[in-house]
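Duplicate of earlier report; Kynureninase input re-posted below.
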Amino acid sequence: MSGFADTRARFHLPEGVIYLDGNSLGPLPRAATERMARVMQDEWGEMLITGWNKAGWMAQPGRIGDRIGRLIGAEPGHVMVGDTLSVKVYQALAAALELRPDRRVILSDSGNFPSDLYMAEGLIRTLGQGYELRVVAPEKVAEALSEEVAVLMLTEVDYRTARQHDMAALTAQAQELGALTVWDLAHSAGAVEVDLAGAGADFAVGCTYKYLNGGPGAPAFIYVAPEHAAKASPALSGWLGHEAPFDFDPTYRPAPDIARMRVGTPPVLGMAALEAALDVWDMVDMREVAAASRKLSTAFIEGVEAACPALRLASPRRATERGSHVSFHFAHGYAAMQACIAEGVIGDFRAPDIMRFGITPLYLDEDDIERAVEIIARVVNDRLWDRPDYATRAAVT
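Output:
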């Protein structure tokens, strides 16, 4: 993995820690500390409110959107950054439903992140009018598509197992039946190759605090395909999505393009950290990142299975069918993960029994994988997890 030595040097990685949790929160890019200090001191501190113009704060959401767009195969000018992922899911789903007024079914799967399903349920309660959320097993999505479906809403990479949907095939099938697609890229952006334009996706959303390393609570993004950008109606009609915000018009008029998906005031400090992280991403090609991830994750699976027979693989075995994390079933998974963390390998736990490990070649190499396997094997085989304090659930797992 020598090709990523330069990117590894760009991250702060605590001494003695093997960080396998980039799928929940990426590590700190070293430049983010200086970038945020500069924004706070030189921009906020010295420019005060004039920073919206002088420092270009108002243009940040679109500018950063294009930088993310490069990583997900989006056309320039069709990704906007801001708000949270749940807000962006709501926006995309509401806009897609309005573009299919004669249909009432939202199709999703049981591998979707719960917040996406909660957003759909909440939107359905608000709309009334007989809307229905149908949730099927991930492998049953294709056969569940029909001319009743208004929107197919899926997370491309399953947050638990890393199972990856075929975006291009499902998008084509959905559109052939007259449905629109909303893809959640939370575990895709910066993890796997994504080609939104090539797949013909209608809408996509994602977060930036995972593989993109934007920091805790970093802003989310939304993509709207060119054919929908001037027609999609924003259910959350925020001031900054107005055609002319500083006209202070009492009646909402949507901006003519992706800017209509802006809602609230841009999180300038959070976006400063995100821009520093994206500087690292400018150094790499996603095809190389994805290939390296597959190599590392395959080595990780082979190592864990050879050393820890008590762990059962939850992720697809074939590398091309999974994202950039690997999960194992273990009855004592929560306690075992706490023991791993205490021993210097940080992953996370997903109920009911999944130990989840993110594989990120930007800052991990073969030696890290080998050492992680050794530690995990010692934790499991020597029952280091069998302590009462490791079984006590914390607020965040």
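The chain has two domains: 2-29+285-391, 56-281.

Merging into the original ticket.
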